[in-house]
Write a structure and sequence with these properties.
single chain, 201 residues, alpha+beta, 6 strands, elongated
């Protein structure tokens, strides 16, 4: 007899277990992606095609099972909403700032700041890097994975308030990213005070 289990604590997120003679884990996002690929290959969006795609995807996952990998991704709806709002606001205000600098004839001196992070997982480090780089007036030019440090290019580096403001912005973005996608250990880390920055390059 074959049964499906969705609430097994040993399962990774968004997965279910097929329990029969052998236990198989079905990755639901992978099945959805394989179904989309199947429909694109046939070039027809129809219910029979979708059902066939799901069946083929399930068979592929059962016959060629992938090893279980827990990447530490957790989805927190409220955190995702806060991160989205913050990103949109930062992109708007930074875009206005950059536009103003383009028409301003005063020379601006750019610089690179080292910003140590509190998160340690590769996933959170990558997500924070992407979020910071999406803001127009700051971009990540280098990442030190072993030290969990971002080197961020900022404008108006000659303003004495810019370094601290830029670091606070990165730390705020890191906290929002971790609260949107991190596990309990990472969320506990971002509750701690930010680490002291290293000497500038």
């Amino acid at each position: 007899m074959i049964s499906l289990r969705f609430r097994d604590p040993n399962l990774p997120p968004f997965s279910c277990a097929v329990v029969g003679r052998r236990r198989r884990v079905l990755d639901l996002p992978l099945i959805a992606w394989l179904t989309v690929v199947w429909m694109l290959l046939w070039g027809t969006l129809s219910l029979p095609n979708a059902i066939t795609g799901v069946l083929v995807a399930v068979v592929v996952c059962l016959v060629f099972p992938l090893p279980q990998v827990n990447i530490g991704l957790r989805l927190h709806p409220l955190g995702i909403a806060r991160l989205t709002v913050r990103l949109l606001w930062e992109m708007y205000t930074a875009g206005v700032k950059v536009s103003h600098q383009m028409v301003d004839r005063r020379p601006f001196r750019a610089g690179v700041l080292a910003v140590p992070l509190r998160c340690r997982s590769d996933l959170m480090l990558t997500a924070t890097t992407i979020a910071v780089s999406n803001v127009p007036d700051s971009s990540v030019v280098e990442v030190h994975r072993s030290q969990a440090t971002l080197f961020v290019h900022v404008l108006e580096a000659d303003d004495p308030a810019t370094p601290e403001r830029a670091r606070q912005g990165v730390w705020r973005m890191e906290e929002l990213v971790v609260r949107a996608f991190g596990d309990r250990a990472e969320i506990a880390r971002v509750r701690q005070p930010p680490p002291q920055p290293r000497s500038p390059r």
